[in-house]
Design a protein that fits this description.
The structure holds two protein chains of two kinds.
Chain A: E1 2-11, E2 14-24, E3 29-33, H1 40-47, E4 55-60, E5 63-64, H2 69-75, E6 76-79, H3 91-101, H4 106-119, H5 135-147, E7 153-157, H6 165-178, E8 183-188, H7 191-197, E9 200-205, E10 208-213, H8 215-220, H9 226-234, H10 240-245
Parallel strand pairs in A: 3-8, 3-9, 6-7, 7-8
Antiparallel strand pairs in A: 1-2, 1-4, 4-5, 9-10
Chain B: H1 2-17, H2 20-39, H3 51-54, H4 57-79, H5 81-87, H6 92-112, H7 115-124, H8 129-154, H9 160-175, H10 180-187, H11 192-199, H12 203-211, H13 217-240
Helix pairs in contact in B: 1-6, 2-4, 2-6, 4-6, 4-8, 4-9, 6-8, 6-13, 8-9, 8-12, 8-13
The chains are: A alpha/beta, B mainly alpha.
Chain lengths: ~250, ~240
Amino acid sequence: MIEIEGLTKRYGRHTVVDDLTFHCSSGEVLGFLGPNGAGKSTTMKMVTGFVAPSAGTASVCGHDIRSDTLAAQRRIGYLPEGAPLYPEMTPGSFLDFIADIRQLSGNARRQRLEEVTELLHLGPVLNQATETLSKGFKRRVGLAQAILHDPDVLILDEPTDGLDPNQKHEVRELIRSMSEQKLIIISTHILEEVDAVCTRAIIIAEGRLLVDDTPKALAVQADGNLDEVFRRITQPGANSEEVNNT
Amino acid sequence: MNMIKAVFRRELQSYFATPVAYVFIVIFLMLIGAFTFYLGGFYERGQADLRAFFNYHPWLYLFLVPAITMRLWAEERKSGTIELLMTLPVTPWQAVLGKFLASWAFAGVALSLTFPIWITVNYLGDPDNGAIVAAYIGSFLMAGGFLAIGSCLSAFTRNQVIAFVITAVVCFGFLLSGFPLVLDLFSGWAPQIIVDGIASLSFLIHFEDISRGVIDFRDFIYFALVIGAFLYANTIALSWKQAD
């Protein structure tokens, strides 16, 4: 579904993402982990076609993101970091705009808009200006936008960041309920989240892939303590070879 | 086409979702009225034409157009929505064109609301209505030129104040490029052909022609080229400075 080959991003002499290669397919929930500044968001920006890679490429459902950008973007639902929204718009008119762009029409459009509104409990705020909404609602509008066209690939950059425990739980339930027919990639630095929803975890630091394993196998390495594993792997100066051997 | 329409509709909605549109239109109409009647001496001229009205359009656009365009892209950058927009299946051209056309349509609405002055001059006398239509078209085209410049420059920054100031300065340069104020910057060292080239870029001279009712096809081509060139530069600016 998504094939990432040698993906690299350099800003000047600084390498943010360094020769990243991995594949993932439908049915997986991939947790993309790493300390802040590890290159998670930059990788997602490249896969969604927002930032052009310095080298390498990614393909989404067979469409190369560099040469066949639009076709790839049609297959992706994307929640950028911080869930940016147009502050002056209402969620209702915003989702209408997304439905236009996603070329939904007629009954299918009406039905899908209703479903998504229902799924994310946006009913009460549909006609309220986005800037007046709470953080939880804003995040949910961002999620609604991402799933509106029922994409094959869902890429969510820190989907639960800043939500309260109940809202986090709801978002995780939502991810789990959609995971069977889709490939879902979530970036996070909250490890309990990986344990809760992911079928696979990739840890990167300083732009390099350090670990690619199931959350369970990761946890076994440190008696069930994911935090411990994470710290050991990503701490500056950690020897990545040693980690791979264990 | 559908994508351009979707971007266009969203953008235009945004203008009217905030007080910006209403404040802008009211201020535009008040200023144009004041200029026409006081500075332009609409009554004192004693002539049934709208020269006193159209003469001030370039100067009003000079600081009102940057106010429309400063937010076009700078705000998208600032709030991060540019990432949302550019990861939707929309090409940079479609996004640029949709947004530009929305701002142009908005300027068109403001311009068309000056219609009472047209009614007034027809009530008072017997003007050449063909010339007035031509001048309205010229004014609208000139607004398009200013808007394209502003849209392009707004894509280079995330700061709306910078976008406003730079746009106003560049528009001022374009407006006066046929006059010594700008030409003297070049005539000392640049070859004559370049100085002539710069002189021929003047908005004011091309607008004067049209606003006198002389419809010269070359003036249309000129504004179309300015709009096209700046919108092209706009798409370049987007892909070049995408991530910031």
